[in-house]
């Protein structure tokens, strides 16, 4: 397949319910949508789901835009590859910046699956026709507000709930939710907010009797030793998210005993290609995996659902329905029934992109490649940049 041209669209969508983690609060998201078009006119969409601020990862929307426009798109426009995973080799010298790379890699996979006439899930090696979804709930002002949020989503059919925690918002909300829902699959995510400090370790130890599926990323991304110390004395599995950007990180974490479960986010690991590799490596190490989320729009969400259909994704994933996040999405909505999401069976990404709404919600755009001015979407672009490679 030959990449003829590429386009980026920076799109803002308001969240239905604002979301607070241990580090920040947000009411809308700006994600960069990547459109790759081949020499036959087929289109593949991917999403750069980088947060606006560098609090979850060092990447931001602006750094991702800069890296994508200056390095990634110039490397892939004009490239001819047999398999989508080979596109990453074109920008293999780029260090870090995995969110930006992930959007380009995903667009390559969606494009390839479209050309092959197969669903993205099959292209990736997926085997499931539906995946179990959980919801990730932010920190609320009061425990009652949190219980109301849990109630809304349990009533909607979700059977697994993840609660964001932070020092001072942990034992009390977790116990309250557990008391109200004794059978619920429950887990927590600290986004690295705890330290090797007696009060913090005591609070985490007190969560051990709440019957949690896992404690996600209790300590700072690089602090694998404290994570290993907690795992050694806690019966609740530690799940790693921010700590694992590469398969090498996973091997290190395994050697140190720093966790037992892996949250795979294609964004954090640099793409679907890297995510599938991490899935395979985790299976060899005996770590169950699940698919995490970054509040993706429909494009990234559809890719997450496809990824979750691989056999190693045995735990519920953060791939809840579009309506939990957005009143209107840039694709047809992804829906859940009884907390289960069907894996799109159509060829390619498997969801239709609503380009009219996308353009109305767009803040900026960029195009690269000779063909960009001639394709039907050209009217959507404000500028066509000269080819740089
Ligand atoms: O740590 O998993 C995380 C959202 C933004 C940044 C980090 C995380 C999250 C989530 C949301 O937990 C998962 C989702 O519903 O998309
Ligand atoms: Mg997390």
UniProtKB/TrEMBL annotation:
Membrane spanning stretches: none
InterPro entries according to UniProt: Enolase-like_C_sf (IPR036849), Enolase-like_N (IPR029017), Enolase_C-like (IPR029065), Mandelate_racemase_C (IPR013342), Mandelate_racemase_N_dom (IPR013341), OSBS/NAAAR (IPR010197)
Domain of life: Bacteria
GO MF terms held by the record: O-succinylbenzoate synthase activity
E.C. numbers: 4.2.1.113
Enzyme class: lyase
One Pfam family of this chain: MR_MLE_N
Mandelate racemase/muconate lactonizing enzyme C-terminal domain location: 143-237
Entry cofactors: a divalent metal cation
Keywords: Lyase, Magnesium, Metal-binding
Protein name: o-succinylbenzoate synthase
